[in-house]
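Hi R.,

Here's the input for the magnesium ion complex you asked about:
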Amino acid sequence: MIDVTKIDQIETMILDIPTIRGHVLSMATMRSQAAVLVRIKFSDGSEGIGEGTTIGGLAYGPESPESIQSAIDTYIAPALADWDADDVNGALQLLDKLVRGNRIAKTAVEIALWDGLGKRLGVPVSQLFGGAVTTKMPVAWTLASGNSETDIAEALEMIETRRHNIFKLKIGKRAVRDDVAHVARIKEAVGDAASIRVDVNTAWSLQDARWGLKGLQEVGCELVEQPVPARYLDAMAELTSSYEIAVMADEALNGPEDALAVATHRAADVFAVKIAQSGGLKRASEVISVGQAAGLGLYAGTMLETGLSTAAALQLFSTVETLHWGTELFGPLLLTDEILAEPIVYRDFCVEVPQGNGIGVTLDPDKIEFYRRGGSRILKSAAGE
Ligand SMILES: [Mg+2]
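And here is the predicted structure with magnesium ion in place:
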């Protein structure tokens, strides 16, 4: 009889980690990030870890850290009890039947399943998706202090230290002309040393967006992300066809079905592919396939996850032939502290794919205990242990 490894236990916890500065988005200002950590224990003693994280509580999307945790604890974990640990596709099919939506919760569990499978097989998760074709990728930084001078100083320092030369500016909170003036100042300060892009996070009406895109392309901005609400595909299509500046879909992309709708409407030039928003690594790989088949540009997006989910994303995106617009997988750099035993490496304007089995990273147990909601808030080292 073949000995089947089973899912024994699925644990969750929320980690609250402060950000290095206020992160000002059109819909919320973040001063800390809440990441839902998932740990799956398997019957052979192996483990897998995963993360489900969103932006700004409930301001960005329909899932909150608390809803992610409760969906996993109440519905997903019991459904997967004793499931064949190697049958990731079967587990995903079951979850799609039992749990509607809740993509980020599913993502957290799915990452832990892939991580466990990779560790048991002794291969990186990228191998489970056909193998990595690259070891590093360009990585953007988001300028979102809310102040032009601070953003310029931050950008110049990032260029100087060769950490980033692609900048995404968070706009949409102020009047359109003020935002365009802000972008123009930053573009003037960095010149040709960096690529400048913006993310409006759905804040504009179509009318605002027409003025916005016209102004942005005049000042040398290369790309505008999700200028109008996610469901306004016709407006996105009009903007995509009316201006030279690239239009990227983000909030409009919640899995492969949305990807097909955006591609069919020609409602974007570029897909911001996020593993959490897609519903996991497998669904994200399907979003990528739709984008490739439609001849669209690809970009690896982030939900400002910790190094854990960032590592999982790097495993998948390392298997993609061409990421035309690079990545924004900088999540760990926005946080004041590192929860991984070995941090992800950022250098020479790139993020490097962690080497190792599974998603390629391990957690620092002291940091997990410190940042765990309801935890000790005492670092063992600080306590003299
Ligand atoms: Mg975005």
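One thing worth noting: The first strand starts at residue 7 and ends at 24.

Cheers,
M.
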